[in-house]
Amino acid sequence: MIIKQKLIIQIMKKFYKFYFSNFEFNNSTMEAVFRYNFDNQVFFEEIIDFSSKNFKIRGDFDIETLNNILFHLHMALWISYYKSCPTKELIVESGYLDEYQINFWKKFYINWLWEFLYTNKINPKKLFNFFNCSRKKYIKKDFSVSNKALVATWWWKDTIVSIELLKKAWIDFDLVVFWKKDKLKKNTAKISNKKILSIKRKISENLLELNEDWYYNWHVPITWIIAFALEAASYIYDYKYIVLSNEKSADFWNIEWEWVEVNHQYSKSLEFEKDFWVYVKNYISDNTKYFSLLRWMYEVKIAELFAEYWKQYFWNFSSCNVNFKILNEKNHNKKDWKYWCNSCPKCAFVFSILRPYLKKKEVKEIFWEDLYAKKELEETFMELLWISWIKPFECVWEAEEVIYSMYKSLDKYKENKLPYILEVFKKDVLNKMKDEDLKNIEKKLVRIWWWDIIPNELKELIFKNL
What is the torsional sign of CA 352, 459, 65, 68? Predict the structure, then answer.
């Protein structure tokens, strides 16, 4: 790893300034183009296509109102390009940032990139110096919106739980997909009997070339970009609520470094949502509301609710990122395509939290095998239990959730010998715990936590149906 990092540093040509060049919107094609560059030498152009044949554009559509939102989206999309070669100076040419905005973006860029900086041992202290090169100030132009909701849709079980909770509450909503509308998402819309708005994203080819030339390439917390993209979509197509499905444990960090808690899921955290809501209120609109519907629950509670719906969504959910990488996207529509790699931390975690609520036959239908029987996953499960020194840099959750799920799964193997992973768990974890410890964990995980920003009018409708 150290040798590879040294090689990257030697091969990479260093850049000194990153420019937010300009953006534009085409009324005819409904495409927004965002431009950036390094040192006026390497240029990037990203396209976001908001067009849709099945959704009607608001009658009072105003390009100046949309351009105000797109300026903020321009400030969000750049991270995909900047991370390839982080520079000290950030030159904003597309609009003017006031002091509050500069502090806002600094905070989020640092928190967003902290895992990247930590892994690549990049000193963050000299980065994120903003310089205004434009006097154009984008002014907030508030707009009215209907009471409809847009639900950000993935192939995850969490999205499915949000969909079903909103249906039970008789809330008017549609689904929205950012980037790719694959078979899983299409089928989720079909099963839930909802329309699906597809916002298409085309990343600059020059970025892919940089990645091939040994520049940095790293995970991008896409939720941040989605937040600003859906603000634009909510204006164009007239929606008040933007609904995500992030759970309570997304707030929990992975490791402490440089006196900062590094959180792989920072853009899914309540802290992000609160700050984002204030930013939107100050600079975009008082009327749109962005929030996570499942913030009041831990994943084990979400898994319990999902167990009610999994059969109807059986072939239409996954939580594995490995089998959904860009390079594999052509395979997603193949009949024999498996939605689980059964080797990564996410597969192991989701298997654990679903196992207490599913029969052996049902587990085999979903995962094709019992992951607790795979000796080669011992290290992965030990990381999930935090017996190893660090929580995996994946969208996985607290160790207590895995402890609780494994403990509850023991009853599923009453008549048989325990599989290897559960034998290790029983010996190395469970036998060292007291009954009181398990009761406290259960009390924590199954209760409702009211630290959220779900609008009260929706909260009342949803919780009376639980």
Answer: negative
